[in-house]
Amino acid sequence: EVQLVESGGGLVKPGGSLRLSCAASGFIFSSYSMNWVRQAPGRGLEWVSCISTRSEHLYYRDSDRDRFTISRDDARNSLYLQMNSLRDDDTAIYYCARAPGGGFGVADLWGQGTLVTVSS
Amino acid sequence: EIVLTQSPATLSLSPGERATLSCRASQSVSNYLAWYQQKPGQVPRLLIYDTPNRATGTPARFSGSGSGTDFTLTISSLEPEDFAIYYCQQRSKWPWTFGQGTKVEIK
Questions:
Q1: Does the beta carbon of B57 lie under 8 angstroms from any beta carbon of chain A?
Q2: Helix H or strand E segment including A20
Q3: Per-residue b/e over B49-78, b at no fewer than 16 CB within 10 Å?
Q4: What mean pLDDT value characterizes chain A?
Q5: Residues in B touching A95 (Cβ below 8 Å)
Q6: How do residues A50-82 score in pLDDT, each as one tens digit?
């Protein structure tokens, strides 16, 4: 079955760290750019980060560039997001998403998401 | 960053009616505009990409049009399963951004 399964979310205090993981199956993971997209509770969607095939290109929002690190392990069919210096406004469901056809900026397959709650 | 403004915020229609959703960009995004559907408790689903292209599995009643800064998603005849929130999204310039959503609700 073609799917993405996220893990690693949880409750963390402001200033803390979390590492999110996404396990891919059912498709050739190494052939696709991958993404993290988040959705704050009851709010809209925000594209967090993107990593190209072979990790050649990495994309971060300016506000996250010094705090978040996206990475992938094609041998393990896995995507990661290391989040440091977490803030209250990072609270959201974090979705792992695939970009189709080796391109960028479109997400045709989404995981169910993992909830990150930043609160003291 | 490019701001996408969707209108209306809420669209109240009956099954069988035509739905017209608008998305306006703060600067040109060429044709790099996608539409997603999200139902309560579910993950977003890609419907349309690069303006007119339907994603795999998207019914033909969904169509996208526009270019530059003004885009439209049309649902020709609403089915019960189409009542949801719809988001537009641009991939012309990083950071890729979403609109705030249009809720299509049953009248």
A1: no
A2: strand A18-25
A3: bebeebbeebeeebbbebeebebbbebeeb
A4: 96
A5: 43-44
A6: 999 999 999 999 999 999 999 999 999 999 999
Chain A CB within 8 Å of residue B50 CB:
yes
- Cβ distance B43 to A44 less than 8 Å, yes or no, reads no
Q: Does A46 touch chain B (CB under 8 A)?
A: yes
Residues of A in contact with B6 (CB under 8 A): none
The pLDDT, as a whole number, for residue A100 is 86
Assign A41 a pLDDT band (cuts: 50, 70, 90).
Answer: confident
B42 and chain A: CB distance < 8 Å anywhere?
Answer: no
pLDDT in tens, A87-116: 999 999 999 999 987 788 999 999 999 999
